[in-house]
Amino acid sequence: MSKNSHLGHQAKKRFGQNFLHNDAVISDIVDAINPEPNENLVEIGPGLGALTEPVVERAGELSVVELDRDLAHRLRHHPFLAPKLTIYEEDALKFDFSKLASEDRPLRIFGNLPYNISTPLIFHLLTFKDKVKDMHFMLQKEVVQRMASGPDCKSFGRLSIMTQYQCQVIPVMEIGPEAFKPAPKVDSAIVRLVPHKVIKNPVKDIKALNQVCLAAFNQRRKTIRNSFKKLISVEQLQSLDINPGLRPENLGLNDFIKLANFITDNPVIADND
User: Fold this and answer.
1) Helix axes 158-166, 118-126, angle to 10 degrees
2) Which of 1, 60, 119, 222 could form a disulfide with 226 if both were Cys (CB 3.0 to 4.6 A apart)?
């Protein structure tokens, strides 16, 4: 049973707080994470501890990153949790997660992420992927769909490409608004991200991949010919076996990798952007 329902903390809009309060849903999420003793578990935004408590019960200890001073204070004085937590009262968007990892103890990161910062936070976390075993996040359902989406879908874009290039993306379960207080206006979903140990078709520079994605999806109704005109000519696109008349969402991940590697090898053209 969740021990948080009586705690009377007002959710703060500026932190995008929506607290889980459905015990059955909480139990399913913790089962999906499957925390074990001696693992290097890190929770982002523990809030009122809905996931923190059952995870600590299974794992024994936990690091948490919490920006809200009131909630961090509450956790520090929590009769059951306090001795088992290492609390970092910091902004997860700026937090150096690598300092929590070691060779033999890769990170297992999880959290009910504030929806207003979820995409930049995912991009930040991906920079630490070499130190991460897996990540489980509660996100807006639409964000999980974008992460998992393939080509020829409206939801396919920069988030799909950058996430799938670096991780296996596994949608785990969907959760309705009624599981939260206050209830958000959107459906939520849990996603599991497992960083690839080896990337079969690597880019020479991940920044170039991001640059290509930004150029492509900034105005996604444009054809590739127009999206990329500052980066690559029509002839060069054709030499890469890419049809200039397609729209960005019609390209696959490997096409974006080809484009990124071309830009890395031909920086003079890329400088115009």
Assistant:
1) 30
2) 222
